Amino acid sequence: MGYKSELVRTRSTWHVAFMSFVLASIPYGLATTLYYPLQGGGPAVVIWGWILVSLIILCVASSLGEITSVYPTAGGVYYQTFMLAPARIRRVSAYICGWCYVVGNITITLAVQFGTTLFFVACVNVFTDEDGNGIWGGEAGPPAWQIFLTFVGVTVVCNIISTCGNKYLHHLDTFAIFWTFAGIIAILVTVLAVAKQGRHSAKYAFTDFEPTSGWPAGWSFMVGLLHAGYATSSTGMVISMCEEVQHPATQVPKAMVITILINTVGGLLFLVPLMFVLPDLAMLVGLANGQPTPVIIKSAVGSAGGAIGLLLPLMVLAILCGVACTTAASRCTWAFARDGAIPGSQWLSQVHTKLELPFNAMMFSMVVQIALGAIYFGSPTAFNAFSGVGVISLTLSYAAPIAVSMLEGRRQVKGGKFYLGQWGWVLNIVALAWSCLALPLFCMPAYVPIPVQNINYAPVVLVGFVVIASAWYILWGRKNYRGPPTESVGLHPTASNQAADINPPNKKD
């Protein structure tokens, strides 16, 4: 592939599948964004939205797996776009895809850390004072500075675990999947068995549709898909781990597809019981913290102690998800930087020899996340921006290699070990159709009319990154950026690549 092998290959197929599972962190990823489908229409959006998006993402995962079986590098979809695109648009398409991939990885990691913060606050506040207000912040909730400092603490902890425990992360991922299903089963059995407020009928749990977002009914359902879109947006992030995987051409594609199937089942086991014990929908939608899951579980079990016991598995999974996202974001940033495509690339492309990981890229990602987290001081719905930009950017980056592969008649993937045959065209079309929908959909506010302080900043953050990427390309990339150092397409390493010792003679992986 033209790169020096610098990272240690310690992961098997199941290790990759488990990490991919932890990146999505079902049920945690569904718990933190449950507000969106409840406001978008209630149980029908929750259940059928999850099934619909899971089927779509299965198409995306299969399409990306097919391409990854041919080009398994840490550069992921960026490298794949460069290799698959026609020569006339190779550089620019890879550059755009790479920036979308890096921005998506960083902002979805930010969304996870911020979502964990808000979720932790909601979990603590299942305990209330004599007036019925949460013990952390009372009726108004914690002040913004406390939320921000908690977010910083969560982010730093995840970076410390990812850095210091790098050699043992695959064991942590293995633990996580068993921990997750133990937690799901505990929630499923307990809430249905206890059900202090009674149980709804199956008709209500699967078909009730009461949109309260202010959008027309059809579009309200679509906006509610952010719930499932956010939880499944990490599908292609695991490709960045290819250079730490044994036999990635076969293991990573299989792991990506296996994970979607596991996630779909795990998501239904978590969501369906909650819909049967759902308390008043208007009350849940009106929650100031936007975190209905702790309230639903407390209502079902009837006590704060019981609720926190069932929420504990989700709280642990939240940290594990943050660690996995932090790891993946650092790898993709490092991979893009070693081709000179990011300001400060020579520094960002270095691998720490003792830690055996791209430490500089990890610290860069952390600093960007903390800086963007300050948006919360201006908007209490900042989480919308982080999750929206993450989903949009990752979805677009996944679409790029699929689109250019189709543009070339899918001829370059025919020799892969995960070739989809004629079904590949159908799966590719579905994946691209989802990408076209995601761009406008996740820039929309969750409800209308919306006050100025609650505006969705996703378009603003996205445009900000576009400006930075465009400026860097005009000032430096137009003359210097040449893409991956791949001799097979007749190109040679750029000066910056040579300086970083990326493609030394006789040391190609």
TrEMBL record:
Keywords: Membrane, Transmembrane, Transmembrane helix, Transport. One of its GO terms (molecular function) is transmembrane transporter activity. InterPro entries: AA/rel_permease1, Amino_acid_permease_CS. GO terms for cellular component: membrane. The keyword Transport applies. Residues 487-509 are annotated as: Disordered. Coiled coil: none annotated. The chain crosses the membrane at residues 12-35, 47-71, 92-122, 142-162, 174-195, 215-239, 260-287, 307-329, 357-377, 383-404, 425-448, 454-475. Gene3D superfamilies: Amino acid/polyamine transporter I. It is a multi-pass membrane protein. GO terms for biological process: amino acid transport. It is found in: Membrane. This is Amino acid/polyamine transporter I. It comes from Cladorrhinum samala.
